[in-house]
What does this fold into?
Amino acid sequence: MSTRSRRSGPMAGLLLAGMLPVFSLILAACEGGGAPRDYSPEELEAAKAELRAHRHLRTFEAGKLFGDEWVARAPHDAELRALYAYQLVGWGFTREVHEQADAILGDDPTNPWGLYTKAYAHFVDRETDLAHDLARDAWEASPQPEFAFLYLRALMRVDFEAAREFLESLDEEARGWPEVLRMEAELESQARYELQDPAWADSMRATWAEYKERFPDHVLGYTRLANEAFNARRMDEWTTLMEAALELSPGSAEVRGQHWMGLWLSELLPREERRRAIEAGMAAYREASPETVEGLQSIASMYRQMGDEERAAEIDAQIVQRDPASYHASSVYLTEMRAEDERLSEIREEYGPDSPETRAQLEAVRDAVHDYLAKPLYSDTYRGGAYLNLYFALLAMDPVPAEELADAMRGMAKHERLNPHITFAMAPLAMVDHTPYALEAADIVRAGAPQVFETLKERRSLYDTEGEWDGALRGSLGSIYDVIGWAYFKAGRTDDARHTLERALALTEHNRDVRYHLGQVYEQLATEAEDGRGGEEAATAWLDRAEDSYIAGFGASRGENPNETALEALYERRNGSREGIEEYLATLDERDRNRRYERIMASREEAAETYEPFELAMLDGEMVNSADLEGKIAVLHFWGTWCGPCIVELPEYQEFDERYRDDPDVQVLSISNDDSNEIIEDYLAKNDYDFAVLVDAGYSERAGVSAWPTTWFVDRDGLVRFVKIGTALKLDQEFSWRVEALREDKEK
It folds into this structure.
């Protein structure tokens, strides 16, 4: 079936023009209870064109105000309402988008513009499957540029390959629509990761260049290319593109925000001049755009980025005063709540987790969350995150408030969907440990299991092999069984606990929590045997199994490990004292070391490949070429200051770097993915790090790196023999094992 849009021929156009006065009389009698309209058909079409122009310019502030007026004047025009709804999407007004869709569908349940608008409402609500189905129905009913755009956008989330096929099926005319050309660029951008081919980045940039050339009055062509130029630190190109975008759309908060952020994060201006330039841009924006809460929020956000919390708070107060139940006021409440949580992280780092200052701030976080939840919130979108913050704060208190923790868990189960591994695994486990509602926690896990696997399914592309995908599925299911089994144990159902936890172990044998929980169950079975259910021989057998379980979980992860504590307690139980325990534990350290070494050596890539060549600048501007690494063992470590796991292991990475700094056979280099040299330099100075840092400049994308930290261990022939994704348990030791294994290759 052709996907060409249905257009009337010339004669039909003449007939329609001749009938317009008649249509006007009919509509005047039908609309508004018979009251005459205060606009002509030509004016209505001009209004629709203006709403489309606001979309092209991303001037949603003025677009919404203009749409408010016109929807009140022509409430039964479905296309007008749909174009108005797009402006509301730009403001984040999902509830109002639903209202516009319902108004259209109330007049005609099959109206394609109504289906499109409802699809958009679901899309913004992250209900992608619903959005996909409605957008498809709208497109099939009446091929329109807007419908093709949203159908592709939703389909890309549901089935990337199907989206590419649909794009290819469109005829030449449809492929020329700006909305479709935009989605072609978006698909090419995603193809970099879905197909693991960085060459798609070049295709994407070429498509955006074509978009800018063909549609010079659409601001996205300029801003998207500017973003690419900024990431590659081509600042002259960025400046030219952003100046063109600002000239085209001076009243767009979106465009202004991108420009302000670029000025702040780049080194185009000396630091002392940046704020002055940004505030000049703010004044120009206010002159070009009507005063709206959307614009105020953009300005407040930029002040907050510049570290001026006082000025940001003043603007936030204006937003709340204008409309305390609005979307933007809710964003202010959210910012206030999150500020207390961020303050907690700062205080914990400065004073320590057990300090009086940290304990006081935990209370402040709890109060901030309760205050946020009591506000007239625009929607429930961020309630889940609030309950998540509350959960972590309560869990860190001593003692843990059991009833409050249980209530927080219930709130998470109802509202929190972004972190199902926490909501339906980690948090219910804490509920089992700290509240009397163990079996309720198990019920929460059972009810949330479909969400866990649905989220995994959405992230399928992140797993390179079927083995990795299978491991993720087994690990998630094992965690679910672990919580349920532990809940049974806490509820006194020891046999049920044993069978469920052994099922968990069969799925995820390296899970330290499963090992610990099973050990506890086996110890309880030993106690029951001592009390008459099997005698001393059975009790000894259960204690042996408990010991084996703890040993298997010993040293399994960074930080406190419950297996270690349990193993010491079991040793004392079996021997009557702690005498000789150090010698006993020392043998376990060696056993754990050997196990980790064997696992790492087994991960060596025998059919190894070369890596993407590079020439990257160090922080001082000196260039480093990958060709200079030939004949050496190279360690390339990808990280960023924004990456939490990277930061955790940097002290050990510094030690590793120092170990090989003067070794002529080994070159250790880190590649930072941060936004500016200034950010990196400030962080290194603050933490007294001096390891070598190269500036990414888009290399990680070209090289197919999609997770941080990632470390490559390259042999003398330029082949990547080991790849470590994520943090290492004992970085200096484990990285050194890999380096020395590659060194031995030459000796052999």
Notes: Strands lie at 615-617, 623-625, 633-639, 666-672, 693-695, 710-714, 720-725. The two ends are 65 Å apart (CA to CA). The first helix runs from residue 10 to 30.
